[in-house]
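User: My notes are a mess, but here's the protein and 2-acetamido-2-deoxy-beta-D-glucopyranose's SMILES. Can you give me a structure?
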Amino acid sequence: MPKTREMLFVGFFLLAAAVAHSEICTDLPEDISAEAREYSQHVQGISKRQPSSYPKEPFISGTVPPGFLWGTSTAAYQVEGGWNTDGKGESIWDHYAHRSGRTPWGDTATDSYHKYATDVQLGADMGMTAYRFSISWPRLLPDGTLAGGVNQAGVDYYNKLIDELIAHKMEPLVTMYHWDLPQALQTKYGGWTNESMVDYFNDYATLCYQKFGDRVKRWATFNEPWSFIVPGYGLGVSPPQMLFGMRRRQYEVAHVVIKAHARAWHTYNDTFRAQQGGEVGIVLGAPWGQPRNTSDPRDVQAADNFEQFFLGWFANPIYGNGDYPDAMKQMINGDGTEKPRLPVFTEAEKAYVRGAADFAGLNMYSAYLIYASNHTLPLDFISAVIPDLKGAKDTEDPTWPHGSSSSTVLSYVVPWNIREQLRYFSEKYSHKVPFYITETGISEKEQFPPNMNDTWRQCYYMLYVDEAIRAIKLDGRDVRGFFAWTLMDNIEWGSGHSVRLGLHYTNFSDPNLTRTPRVSAKLYGDIARSGGFPEGAAHSKHTQEWWDWCHTMEPYKGTGTGAGWYPGMH
Ligand SMILES: *[C@@H]1O[C@H](CO)[C@@H](O)[C@H](O)[C@H]1NC(C)=O
Ligand SMILES: *[C@@H]1O[C@H](CO)[C@@H](O)[C@H](O)[C@H]1NC(C)=O
Ligand SMILES: *[C@@H]1O[C@H](CO)[C@@H](O)[C@H](O)[C@H]1NC(C)=O
Ligand SMILES: *[C@@H]1O[C@H](CO)[C@@H](O)[C@H](O)[C@H]1NC(C)=O
Ligand SMILES: *[C@@H]1O[C@H](CO)[C@@H](O)[C@H](O)[C@H]1NC(C)=O
Ligand SMILES: *[C@@H]1O[C@H](CO)[C@@H](O)[C@H](O)[C@H]1NC(C)=O
Ligand SMILES: *[C@@H]1O[C@H](CO)[C@@H](O)[C@H](O)[C@H]1NC(C)=O
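Assistant: No problem, the inputs look usable. Here's the predicted complex:
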């Protein structure tokens, strides 16, 4: 699932704001009139906002290094279906979707449990060299534990998928946890709130290495921990819906998840690497925080703090010094007179966590414009969802191209967030690893009839792939793969199929769930087959011709993400 900011804005903004307010109202500034002024500027329109005036980059031709992986990304719950087929256990998402008043879209999803060979063929037809998918933990271990027994049909399914990929010359990049926790672990033990999850996850990861590690050489432990921890265990609006955990519980959960990640890495390093020779990393959500005024040190600091609370929460322990970022420690734990809300790593734990990754997977979709402010209003993403982050507010730049539904920040097309984030990560963290761009993509509302000529998505991939090439060519970043989100329209969590991100259109009215390539699939295939934008190639010329147009609002008119996106509101 890509769209953290969309989901946070559209769906649970009000609830979140209420929670946030209960926490920060003691910090209301004395100067209410200044605050009211700022708020009124906000509601009067975005024209009053100060744009970041980030320069539009020119098109550059260029190709990626040999062995670069071109792929698409998916997640088990969003595509597999077969939620209880052949012995699969219930996940927290199944459980959530089966409660009254919801549509259990994920029960069949795109039926990739049965149609995996079709999916592999779609990738092969585009000339992909890789495929990122996730393993459903309860499909392998129905109650989450080895003691509960291994579901052989689940093992068979992933064997068939992996073999099919390899037969089509696509390398698997496999996520072990893309949010579909076995419900039994939640019900019995409280899910990720329980430290013993480190052991259960390690058992599961070990099983994955044992069964599939002869063919899978790239493992991601977790997908976007931020995006399941804050909504699931902090705000409580997504599964497992544990409410009011923003002050303490979400930090404790993240502590467990970071340790579980490190443990799974060490298990691989100690027991499997010599024989299997692969790599294990983590996939982090990495929206870029752009300082509104880059000449103002306060804005620069505020944007850095935003990065710390989002990316750094996980990246700093794993790729940095083994500990949480200083900004988080200071703002959450204060002067240390109270029991720390942000847990404290022991020295041994720091040494264990530090450097426990062979690569960094980054999901990079868009950016926020960040400015320094101590005002509560206007309510924004930070005040609603990251209330512990003080002195920073977010907005967006009206000059950034965006879709018709500009209230959903997701649709802001900010290709240079890739290069900025890679620069930031490279400069900030001492543990040097290769990067994979594990997700990026653009959503559109479901339309009837579907518009197969998805110019917005074509523009998006032109700009974003070229930005990745710029990062490699101009900045020398060690980027080894680009994975588009996503192969085909799938089940966008609680939104079902009303939100579409696929390179292929999926016809959900058709019992066959037929997938049809959009024009963007052809373009992305041309890019992949030729390793980027070689000089003189037809698609390079085409991209150059469209370059200026793609930097205007015009191509994105068909996007926008639909209200009521988030399951908490359904
Ligand atoms: C944590 O999990 C263990 C099983 O590993 C269980 O015995 C314990 O009761 C759980 N703790 C809580 C608070 O649920
Ligand atoms: C990883 O495994 C190698 C080979 O066994 C070992 O030398 C190294 O110390 C391990 N790294 C860590 C951080 O444990
Ligand atoms: C940006 O910040 C600098 C330094 O504080 C200031 O001099 C300048 O006026 C600011 N620019 C704008 C457009 O506000
Ligand atoms: C916010 O408050 C802090 C602490 O009083 C102060 O240091 C900082 O300059 C303030 N930020 C702004 C943008 O006024
Ligand atoms: C898609 O639309 C664009 C812009 O209108 C047009 O130039 C292009 O020819 C169309 N492509 C196809 C395959 O119809
Ligand atoms: C989707 O499938 C239904 C049922 O087979 C069919 O009637 C409809 O034309 C299809 N829609 C598109 C856009 O292909
Ligand atoms: C359903 O898909 C299968 C496999 O792609 C195909 O053979 C069959 O003709 C399709 N059926 C319909 C009704 O489209």
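The mean pLDDT is 89.
User: Great, I'll file this with my notes.
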